[in-house]
Amino acid sequence: MIKCIKCGAKYDLKDIIYTCSECGSILEVICEPDISKDVFNCRKSTMWKYKEFMPVDPAKIVTLEEGGTPFCKCDKLGERLGVDLYVKVEGSNPTGSFKDRGMSVGITKAMELGVDTVGCASTGNTSASLAAYAARAGLRCVVLLPSGKVALGKLAQAMFHGADVLSVKGNFDEALEAITALALEGQLYLLNSVNPFRLEGQKSIGFEIVDDLGWKSPDRIILPVGNAGNISAIWKGIKEFHNAGFIEDLPMMTGIQAEGAAPIVRAIKENKEDIVPFENPETVATAIRIGAPVSSRKAIMAINESNGFAETVSDEEILSAQKLLARTEGIGVEPASAASIAGLIKLVEGGEVDNNEQIVCVVTGHLLKDPNTAISACVEPIEVNADIKELSRIIARG
Question: Is 304 exposed, middle or buried (0-12, 13-18, 19+ CB in 10 A)?
Fold first, then answer.
C-alpha cells in the first residue's frame, strides 16, 4: 500500500503516482512483513539480504550487488572528539554513492510496471546511478542536470552509461520541476526521491547499521541532507525493524546542511513543519546544493520524531572535515559526504553531543565523485631527480 503522509489517502502499489492526488503531499510505501530476523542469517551481504522489507517482486530484482557497505569503527577520530564513532561508507556502492540502493528498488519497480523510459533531475549522483541501473535493465534513461553545476566525475558516469543527458539553464529545483512535468504527461517514469519506491531502497542503510551493531541502535545517526530523502528513509527503515521487534531503542536523527542551502535547518530551528526554499542555493558540496528539497516534510518529521537535531556547516568546515577524515581514518569522500563529519565536529564543540555517545556518520559518496575539488585541496607533487641522496634529503625533511 502507498499512503499520503499528510492526509492518509491510500493508493495501490501498482499505481504510477508521485504525490497525493487528494492533498498534493508526498507519499510513502507501507511495508510490514511478519517475519523473524533469523531469516537474514547466512544471506549474502547486499541490501537484498532484507528483501522481505522491499515492496517489489523479488523475481524482477535489478541489482549490481549494492549495499553491504563498510561499517568502519573510527577510533582515532572518535577519541579526538570524545565519542564512539562509526562511519558508514556509502561510496563503496557500485556507482560510488548511496543512490544505488534506491535505484535498485526504483528500477525493479519500473520493470514491474512495464515502462520503457526512466528519468530524473540530478546534481550528479542520482543521474550516475540511474544511468547505470537503467542500462542494467535495458531501459532508456533521460537525465536533466543544472548547467555548469555538476561535478565532473558524476557527469562522466551518466554519459558513459548511455543516458540522454540534457543540461538545463537553471538550478536543480528548476530541472526537477521540468522533468516532473514530463513524468506527469506519461513520457517517462520519474525516479527522483519524490518517488516513494526510491526511498524503500535507501532505508536499507538503517537496516545495515543496526545489524552491524549486533541488533542495537546507535545513540545518534548523522548525515548530510540535500533533497532530504535519505534521512527520512533511514529513519523509516530503523522504525520498521523496531516495529518488527528486532531492536529496542531508536537513534536521534541528525541532519547537516550547507549554510548556503539550508531550508530544513531553518525550519527546524523556527519550529515549522514546512520549509521556505532557498532561491539561489550555493555550496561547494554540489550533492546537497538544493534549495527546495522534495522530501523536506519527511525529513522534518524524522528529526522531530527521533528527538534529533539539525545544523549547518560552512564550506570551509566541509572541506576541512573532508581532509581530516581522509588523513585520520583513510576514508575518502566527496564534499557533501564530509558534511556529516563537519556537523559532528560542530555539535561536539557546541555541547550538543554528549561524551561517549555512540555515533554513526553516514558518508554518502566517494572522493572521486568530485575529483577537481580533491585535487585543488592538495599541493602539487614535488618534482625531483631519481637520485637517492636528493630523495633522502626531501624525505628526511618530512
Answer: middle
C-beta separation of 151 from 286 below 8 A: yes
Looking at per-residue confidence, does 394 or 57 come out higher?
57
Say how many residues make up the chain. 398
End-to-end CA distance of the chain: 61
87 — phi, psi (to 5°)?
-125, 125
Reduced to 3 states (helix: H, G, I; strand: E, B; else coil), residue 100 is helix
Ramachandran bin of 370, using left for φ above 0, alpha for ψ from -120 to 50, beta for the remaining angles: beta
And the C-alpha cell for 115?
515502462
The Cα 130–Cα 110 span in angstroms is 12
Same fold flag, 71-96+198-376 and 97-195? yes
Report pLDDT digits (tens) over 130-178.
Answer: 999 999 999 999 999 888 767 777 888 999 999 999 988 888 889 999 9
Tell me: pLDDT of 60 over 90: yes
* Whole-prediction pTM: 0.95
| DSSP code for 45 | S
Model confidence band, residue 380 (pLDDT cutoffs 50, 70, 90): confident
Is the CATH number 3.40.50.1100 carried by domain 97-195? yes
What residue spans define the domains of the chain? 1-30, 71-96+198-376, 97-195
Q: Are strands 27-29 and 2-4 parallel, antiparallel or unpaired?
A: antiparallel
Provide the grid cell at 146: 543544472
Q: Which CATH architecture has domain 71-96+198-376?
A: 3-Layer(aba) Sandwich (3.40)
Q: In whole angstroms, what is the distance from residue 262 CA to residue 275 CA?
A: 9
